[in-house]
Request: fold
Amino acid sequence: MVLDHADILAELNLSSLDRQAPLPGLADGDSVEDEEDGDLLSYIGQEPVHINDVVRGAGLPVSAVSGALAVQELQGVVKQVGAMQYIRVREARQGL
Reply:
């Protein structure tokens, strides 16, 4: 009988996955800053804009822009409206 996730991991011999691996490049107490997210929002408005245009404008790697836009989409700040096209849904709240 399964009582929690640990039982499943033990059965699959994956008990070491029960712990989150630390993110490389981040020391304890560090976090990814929202400053980059705010910069990205300056490239996104009410009209759809392709992620490549945001990457070019911000001068950031595609992986950083893609990750930041994914987080902003989960927060309801931006929305993907087509093939990698984004629009701003609402203003980002301070302190997120």
